[in-house]
Amino acid sequence: MLEYTEVLRLQPGLAEAHNNLANALQRLGRGGGGHRALPRGFEGGPDLAETHNNLGVALAAKGEMAEAVVHYGVALRAKPDYAEAYNNLGNAMVSLGKLDQAVTNFLTAIRYRAQFPKAENSLGCALAMQGRQAEAIPHFTIALNLKPDYGEAHFNLGAALLLQHRNGEAIPHLEQAIRLLPDNPMAMSVLAGIYATAEESALRQPAAALELAKRAVGLTGGADAGALGAPGGRVCRQPAID
Questions:
Q1: Under a CB-based contact definition with an 8 Å cutoff, are residues 161 and 169 in contact?
Q2: Which of 34, 72, 152, 194 could form a disulfide with 25 if both were Cys (CB 3.0 to 4.6 A apart)?
Q3: What is the CATH number of domain 1-82?
Q4: Cβ 43 vs Cβ 78: under 8 Å
Q5: What is the three-class DSSP state of 60?
């Protein structure tokens, strides 16, 4: 780390050193202090947009969303068509409870990158959190068309379909989510709920429901897995920040 900061002290405009420092801070979990390594008043040009995006990601991973938003904003001023930064800014807005702004940023990300499964999933999540399940479902579907093994999108689509009382359509996506995300107790709990309580007798599988519930409880250390998996906007899953 010292070699990067020394290069920055001697040549504060060097893009590669800034980006290496941002990535190193993120790997070490020191995102909370990463932005302080930048020279006073430094914003940089288009070649440094990635640095500020990386710093924003590191800060977001530490839960410092307000500071992350600042760096995403700098990245977007330097590179106005930076789809990844718009997606990250949207996710920060979700965390801050600013869902309308999140939706706007996700839509902008998709406008700049037409095939962007992460942004489609993120947009679906923001819409679902607003209770707009019917609008969210197409975006989860697009995400899966672009990336069929996208476990989070399978879970989100399954949960959204369940909220639309489309249990039969939800089941295969929840099953796929469990296969792709074997440590996800929410998908297990939601699917167990369908198997245990579905109005359609053909969908009820009491033994499978019990087994899934046991697995979910085992993963949560005895916590209420049913509460984790209760269908609703807040169970929407997104991949880990990267």
A1: yes
A2: 34
A3: 1.25.40.10
A4: yes
A5: helix
**pLDDT tens by residue, the chain, 242 residues:** 333 333 334 444 444 544 555 555 555 444 444 344 444 344 555 568 999 999 999 999 999 999 999 999 999 999 999 999 999 999 999 999 999 999 999 999 999 999 999 999 999 999 999 999 999 999 999 999 999 999 999 999 999 999 999 999 999 999 999 999 998 899 999 999 998 888 888 888 888 888 888 888 888 776 554 444 444 434 576 654 44
- The C-alpha atoms of residue 81 and residue 9 are separated, in whole angstroms, by 30
Structure tokens at 6: 């020394």
CATH topology of domain 140-242: 1.25.40
Backbone phi and psi for residue 81, each to the nearest 5 degrees, phi listed first:
-105, 25
The whole-model pTM stands at 0.76
